[in-house]
Amino acid sequence: MLLVIYLTIINVLAFACYGIDKKKAEKGKWRISEACLIALAVLGGALGALLGMLGFRHKTKKRKFTVTVPIFLGLWVAFCIFALYQNFHIVVTEYRYEANVDCRIVQISDLHNQFFGFDQKRLLDRVEECKPDIIVVTGDVVDAHHTWYGLAKSFFEGAVKLAPVYYITGNHEVWLKGEKFDAFLKEIEAMGVHFLDGKVEEMDGILLAGTVDGREVRDYGWDKDERLKVLLAHEPAGYATYQASGADMVLAGHVHGGQIILPGKGGLISPDFEFFPELYEGEHHFGKMTMYISRGLGNSLLPMRINNYPEIVVIDVRKRR
After folding, report:
1. Contact of 22 with 56, CB cutoff 8 Å
2. Which of 57, 140, 190, 230 lies 20 to 30 Å from 152 when distance is taken between CA atoms?
3. What is the pTM (predicted TM-score) of this model?
4. Which pLDDT tens digit goes with each residue over 205-219?
């Protein structure tokens, strides 16, 4: 979404600058430098620059423009196709977990206002294909930097029709807490979403709890319970706290898969600006506790993923033989 906004702004700016420079040339006034006009095309405004050249009949006889602008337009088109595929091609990662129940848990994390079709249809279709018994949402469905509650509402509205939905907040929701966020919570709870921050609920032999702060050990009152204990947590770094809580399984996100995954090295950078974070995706074991980390679906400050497709995580829980 941020990349789309950036490209829209710079192309409009490029088009306007070519028009302004044409008018100034006709009136013999101070001009915008050719280096600046070329730079706008190089930095992503090549489409606006080309439309400005053709529309205003400006710089169409200068080779540095007739060659450079189309070349960078081609490069940016190729880049956008690559970026769209990297950021909107949803993959499903499935894990197997043995317990005393049969259940398919589908995890959604870090949506960050990402658009997956009208009413989030592409995302919801993929979730439906996973045949969930439970859908868990581990935070950051909205983004504090470019907040749009409508996309999150569309997702929840469709998800509750597929399976019971359990939701906890992430750091972005914590930053957004206030009247608007409270109204958002009331609206999605009215849809049937179970808001689990600091709470425990039972469903079909599974206890589900949600942690508010990964640094604080909470007593969920389930220490001696033989049922599967699933803790929804946003940040994987609090694994020691989650282990102390007595959870059997933890579902987390937050790290966005390191944004860029380098072969042989792993995720490049976390939202906390930690380079090559150890906990960026996958299945991890801490004693008897298993933690699954989703790479998430959307982006925040960094506008795109590379070698790191948006991910839905499925935990296929099966009875021990």
Report:
1. yes
2. 230
3. 0.88
4. 999 999 977 667 778
